[in-house]
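the two lines:
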Amino acid sequence: MNTPLILPDVALAPLLPIAITLLGAIAATLLGFFLPRRAITLISMVSLVLSGVSMVTLWNGGLTSFGGSLQADNVALSIGLIILLGSLMTLLVTYDSAARAKLAFPEFDAMLMYAVTGTLLIAFSGDLVTMLIGLEVMSLSGYVIATLQDSRRAEEAGMKYFLLGAVGSAILIYGIALVYGATGTLSYVGIRDATAGLQVQNVGLLVVGALLLLCGFGFKVALAPFHQWTPDVYGGAPTSVGLFLSTVVKVAAFAGMLRVFGGAMQNVPAWAGVLQVLIVATIVVGNLGALFQTNFKRLMAYSAVAHTGFLALALLGNPATGGPALTYYLLVYTLMTAGTLAVVSALQRTEAAFTLDDMRGLFYRHPAYAVALAVCLGSLAGLPPFAGFMGKYLAFQAAFQAGYVGLTIIAAMGSVAALIYYLRPAMLMFMPDRTPAREYPGERTPTTAAVVIGVVGVTVLGILPNLAYGLVANPAIWTVLAGR
Amino acid sequence: MIHFFIFLPVLASLLIFLVPVRWREEFAGAAAGLTLAGGLWSWSVGGLSAYSINWIPALGVTYSVQMDGVSLLLGIVTAFMTLIAIIYAGKRIPNPGTMLSLILMMETGLLGIYAARDLVLFYVFFEDALIPALLMLAIYGKAHRMAALIKFAAYTLFGSLLMLISIIGVKYYGGSPTFALADLQAHPVTGTVQTWLFLGFLAAMAVKLPLFPMHAWLPDFHAQNHDSGVADVMGTLYKVGAYGLFRFGVILFPDAMLELRPILMALAAFTALYAAWIAFSQTDWKRLLAYAGLSHMGLVGLGIFSMNETAMIGALFLLAFQNVYTGALFLAAGMLQERVGSLSTKVGGIMTQAGALSGLTMTLWFASIAVPGLAGFIGEFSILLGAYQVSPWLAFLAGLSTIAAAAYALTAYQTTYWQVRPAGAVLAHDLRDLDWLILGAPVAVAIFFGIYSGPALALVQPVVRAWMNGLGGGV
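prediction for all of em together
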């Protein structure tokens, strides 16, 4: 008896973007023994660009692999491109600041590339296991790069990140197990079909599973009350690491939430109500916390928490409007946060960065950096003509149209608080001051390049939002988040 | 042409940094002059017709602009006062490149506000003007500017974010395909929802009208700005609340405005009287001017909220021309400070040494307190005439503010310009070269349109008439 060998459905094309970054990571690991660190960083950047090119060629292809476990639809590709952009900006910043940050070893680039591979895997995931693997690859590498700098602060930051991150992962895995128990499947499509019309036998199990998943994701994206690690980690880790964690890692975690809650679990009850409460808490805690910060990096950490709240508003919306809103906002968020932290990285003398008082008169010492930072802060505050306004507007609109009017008003009031804490450093920079310069004076061209990407990005996307929004606006790609 | 008119200033504000330092004043002046010329040319051809193009098609956001009627009048006034402010800034502020750039940047925001015929576009321009205003205060302000700045920004954003939610709601509940005013008008929202959306919209406009109790940012904003008064001119021009209510409020929320009319008129009348009362006890010219401006804006608000044709025409006329003379008065206060080093209302005796400065200042004050023959009178009289038909008592109360205006203005004027110059005080020199133009041109405008108001009214009247007819023949 010969049973024919059934070959698994392995298509290599949709794997390509992930495979290229993985190859980049392996190359960084191996070549690190032979080449100087900057050469490794260049190789990593080249592999990111190649991965981006492969994504562009896959655009509109809608390919899947492994029977739907991996999907390279436009959702995955657009978020993947945002991830690559954030990673590229991180690498540009580390190219020259790593030496100052005592991070100048090839292992750093290797771990970073592994993390990028993990984040892409989340964005491309078609079932919960793929998502989990991506999340763990990303998180483990993240713990390492947060700790890699030889300093007490970084070790403390990395330790906190690891402990709380591990708790988050554990909760997430437990949630996956319960969802599997309730529906008998791990694939997004399977869960969606099994929960359509709530024909599941064990709704209680499903709901608990969904809420545990929400908690787990809450740790990763820093939704209050699971955000406590954020200020210490973003503030304590080296600036370039903080940049990576607050942009790329957050984008990936949101991609996972979008797939799971916007796609697989869209019919499951209760999670939206709980998410609503978490969003209110996040907006209040993040914005009020940021009001009282005196260190700029910690301020940015709280601002990252606050933005999590605004981003999550888009998740509540109907996927046809919420999906593009979230994607656009993630892109803008990446550009403006990375731009801001790149300026910090260019100017700081130590990894403790600077206090708000140190920023007084920056415009008269470093006019270009000050204007760039002001543009990024204005965008973070949501002032037009910068892209942050469009992001906020889209998120508000998505939540409003889904009927969350009260929540939108709370978010608007949170934005007023946000304006105050962004405005204070932004305006301090323009106040005349005659103290001598205390910023880092040396060469930092690649970091400046990252700043330019951020500033040009938020300005152009603010004036012509359709350049990016037009690509993702098609509602059809957002109604099949779980896959076909 | 319309894009040239709106965006020429912002273009110049960026290019100015490429111009050699010694030519920057001339460059900014030329740009502002060209913009004003563009405005006057538009007037001569009867306004610039509508232009509309998709901005973000997937969201129904359009770039729709038009410059005619009321918008054109306010646009020309803005261009005119910007030019005056630039001339004074170039003369007064050492190395003024940054200030000139900010003034021009703000001009584009203001012209955009008047030109926008799409709600999202209106919001974008509305906030655009905020950034240069904040930077002017941050760079050129006085010791306590940070508090003033944060108050100003927080009030503005508090209002405008509520307005943003209203904007989202107007399109969503009305089911309009785009945010363009014409489409929104064709898909009106009715009932209680309209009232709630109007309240959100009102929040932003009340901050920028300003209307009690949303006015608290105003005195600090003016008091902390640069002594020259240049930034105050731009701040005065930024009081676009009444225009926003007229352009969008009356069309999109007519029922809500009628329903809330008694409350809003009472608030406006109270603002006028209350501000006049407080102005009376001010000893700093800028704070006094801030409250005087607030009092006049209370009258403007009364005119708009009364939903009466005559009052509304008067309100828009007053809005346009108080920008001219209040702005010029801020510059006059700046000139006073330049000569005696103080903005106090108690310096005394300036008239004896600087006769022309004192005379022109007095003429501007006469315009401000609505002496017949000057532009202020026509606006205030029409407002009170129209408001009287709606609510005699509120019109009477608000009318008291015009009497109070004479009291506070003339008292302060007396203790500054008349009386005796203290012994040993510095010699206050009189107007020199460009000073004549800076104060003379606004005075000329105030006199011309006070005597011959026809051309300006011709821009306002048809628009108001058409809308009132749309509401059922002037409510």
